Amino acid sequence: MKNFITHKAAIVCISTFFCYSLSAQNTVASNASKTTTVEVKKRVDNYKKLKSLGYTDKEIYEDLGNANFLVKKYETAAFWYKKLKDVSKDKMLNKSYQERYQFALKKVGVSTTKDAHNTNKDWMAAVANDYKTTKQKNNTTYTGKYGEYSFNPKGNSSLETVTQQNNYLEEITDKHNAYKTPVAVTADGKTAYFSKGVYVKPATGIFSKKELVHKIYRAENVNGQWKNVKEIALAPKNYSAMHPTVSADGKRLFFASNMPGTFGKFDIYVASIKANGDFGVAKNLGQKVNTEKNDLYPKIVNGNSLFFASNGHKGYGGLDIYMVEVGQRKVGIAANLGSRINSDKDDFSLDLQSKNGMGYVMSNRGQGNVERVAFTYTNKNRDFNSLEAVNDESSINYSTSVFED
């Protein structure tokens, strides 16, 4: 009952607040009291509906202002733009919103300090421009279940610094300071690939909520400095591409994506890298690798050995790490790496260090946070082209997903 009363009181407060705000704007109101009451109720209902969907006040004021502006309901648009101005930093709108606010006020007969002369402006294009992709700030952590966890790349501190300055990489560190966002560097050290979360809101459908998706970026090593950071369009705008890994010859880029055509939530894809740096069409690795659930964290080692994490194959529980041989035109059978590496929890993002025979895997099998788990796979330097390089058990658990090529 208390919650109900509080909710009712909040609605009354919002209604009263909106009425006073409308009056303060000196906008043209209807002479009929009934019409005014209906309009205020409609605004409150719109606000409540969007608030219940998880929108922030700022997003609500932006959307309701733009929606009414585009259908030429300038009085209502001015109302919401005023609300947006009140919650904006220093009580100031950005240039685009301020321009529409002044135009709306002029349309309803309210004089402003600046005249709005943009009668013939393409307002739809202006609104669409405001809804372009925005990058996630460095101090914001991606909270998805399967985040951008990987190992801290050695010898790439300059890359880390430059990409952070460009607002692309963020440091994600657990209590052991074991890992950061993944960076895949080509064997010649000239090119790096990494993925980053961005918020995307479609230009059409103003009331569609922004969603976090991941994009892959490329950086070039120019005279020892990482520059020319650009997005690689491997997936459609509103779909994710993440966890990039590049082959030793620099000719293939593997990554995870939820783009149309996947067999499940996230599938693993491969795209060829041409001599001029362009990319071929991404190809799904098929159902010998991908499942109806999540297939993530690809890691290509040497020529064709691809390690990846999946919770769709028959495993020990949660995400398990698998290995599969991926040729230019043929994919082998995915093999579970066994209980020395996998557990009944999430195990993912494998790192093998051939110099000391150590391997590491990210896992949440411990208490609470994701942590790095170490294991040894051999006491001698070995190639990674066979399963024995990472698994000394006499039996290996193969996945039950065996399909024709």
Automatic annotation (TrEMBL):
Show which residues constitute the signal peptide.
1-24
Report the domain of life of the source organism.
Bacteria
User: What keyword terms does UniProt attach to this protein?
Assistant: Signal
One Pfam family linked to the record: PD40
Q: Give the matching InterPro entries.
A: 6-blade_b-propeller_TolB-like, WD40
Q: Does the keyword Transcription regulation apply?
A: no
Identification of the protein by name: WD40-like beta Propeller containing protein
